[in-house]
Amino acid sequence: ARSSHLQLAAFALGTVGWILCTISMGIVEWRVWHVDNTTIISSGIAWVGIWKVCFISYLHVSPGYKEQFCHKFSGYDSSIPHEIYAAQGLLLIAMFMGLLGVTATIFALRNVYMGVTRKTLITHFFLAGGCFYILAGLCVLIPVSWNFYSVTHNQSIAFPPSYYMPSSPAAQEAGAAIPIGIVAVILLLLSGTFSLSYRFPATANTITK
């Protein structure tokens, strides 16, 4: 067990990274759009996520109350940029890969702390867990980087009329999902590196299978 401190840290970091990956996938604040026309978008701010777009509107609402209007993206909306659809698929893959990494690491640590001395069994599960963590981190890195690039270049989106969104913002900035995704990438890649660094103690009485 003394040889697996880094792998215990890998489990902790990988678990937090997987949770942050799930959070970034679920929240809508990927891009924050600032718009000049506040007729419909009353607050002048709209949030563009990877699953839907949302904004606050005071239309058709009693005075003093506000309503959040959201429109989910459809697979038939050809105007939605590729980085949004890519983020949907890659983050789902990352969530699955991260879960496999956590599971493999738990199984390997269980064998280590229970005194199981099957070298191949333990090392293979740490190796699998490390690969799953790194794949998950890369699957998060691609959409986060791609969407951040779109934000920094103030790229527009030709939304259909039913979205009540302008085709381009006056300005836009990265929402909370992007820094959360960046932290998830760092933690997942670190946990993968720690898992892959495991070396079975040479002095142990091993049973190799």
Automatic annotation (TrEMBL):
Signal peptide: none
InterPro entries noted in UniProt: Claudin, PMP22/EMP/MP20/Claudin
GO molecular function annotation: structural molecule activity
UniProt entry keywords in alphabetical sequence: Cell junction, Cell membrane, Membrane, Tight junction, Transmembrane, Transmembrane helix
GO cellular-component term (any): bicellular tight junction
Principal subcellular localization: other
Transmembrane regions: 6-28, 40-59, 84-109, 121-149, 169-190
Bilayer topology term: Multi-pass membrane protein
Subcellular location: Cell junction, Tight junction; Cell membrane
Family (UniProt): Belongs to the claudin family.
Name of the molecule in the record: CLD34 protein
Gene: Cldn34
